Amino acid sequence: MSVQKQIDEGFLNVTLTAGSMPFYTVRTSILKSVTAASASFSGTVLDVGCGMMPYRKLIESNPKVRKYIGMDLADSSLYAQVEPDLKWNGSEIPLGEESVDCVVATEFLEHYAEPEKALREILRVMRPGGVFFGTVPFIWNLHEIPHDEYRYTPYSLARHFANAGFRDISIKALGGWNLSLAQMLGLWLSFSHMGNRRRAVLKRVFFPFYLWLIRTDKVPAKFDGLENSMFTGLSFTAYK
Question: What's this model's pTM, rounded to 2 decimal places?
Answer without folding.
Answer: 0.95
